[in-house]
Specification:
4-stranded mixed beta sheet, 11 helices, single chain, Leucine-rich Repeat Variant, 2 domains, Glutaredoxin, alpha+beta
Length: 214
């Protein structure tokens, strides 16, 4: 991903919505600035089928590049999402918000659409503000994707974290590798058997046992 792509925006509004005019004005301003390439505005009351197809349940609702955002977002936040619509850090921020608010299904949906987006989960693990709730969300996503094989692209990144992060990150990385479960995780887990942290060693050993490795 690069940060050079200018995103298009789809905005749903409805009559009587008190916040829709302000969001529309802000996005129109971003078009003028060149921060977004095109703005399509849809009246959800006139086109309810299209709103339902996209899962729009409240307005204003905007899709900025890959990001689906609902509510009265201020201009600076709209500009921020537009500016990060094609960056790994932007995807990490979006996944952080989705997992923190319990919208894990959205992360899974986006990962199935474009598996490379999963690299944002590794980026999240590197951040000090990633809470236990978000880490549990990452685990749930990997469990859901287990049979698909999509998460195997994360093995090198998680393996590196299992050897270089702090103790909590190393332990989580070992656990996440076990959730992926492919044969390629085994060398990474074996390397963690001599970790200086007892919990990391135990998780690595348990994970290898679950994978049929003594």
């Amino acid at each position: 991903m690069s940060q050079s792509v200018i995103p298009d925006v789809l905005l749903f509004v409805a009559p009587g919505c008190p916040h829709c005019p302000a969001v529309l004005e802000s996005l129109a301003g971003l078009v003028k600035e060149g921060a977004i390439g095109r703005l399509e505005v849809v009246n959800a009351a006139v086109h309810p089928a299209r709103a339902a197809e996209l899962g729009v349940k409240t307005v204003p609702w905007a899709r900025i590049g890959p990001f689906e955002l609902a509510g009265a977002l201020p201009p600076d936040e709209l500009r921020r999402w537009a500016g990060r619509a094609d960056s790994l850090d932007g995807m990490a921020d979006y996944f952080f918000d989705m997992l923190k608010s319990g919208r894990r299904n959205r992360v899974e949906e986006m990962a199935r659409q474009e598996p490379a987006r999963l690299h944002a989960l590794v980026r999240l693990m590197e951040r000090p503000d990633t809470s236990m709730a978000v880490r549990l969300g990452i685990a749930a996503v990997l469990e859901e994707l287990h049979d698909s094989g999509l998460a195997e692209i994360l093995i090198p990144g998680l393996g590196a974290l299992a050897r270089s992060g702090d103790a909590l990150t190393r332990a989580d990385a070992c656990h996440f590798l076990s959730l992926i479960g492919a044969a390629a995780v085994i060398p990474w887990l074996r390397a963690c058997l001599d970790d200086e942290d007892k919990e990391v060693r135990e998780i690595a050993a348990e994970s290898l046992e679950e994978l049929g490795q003594s």
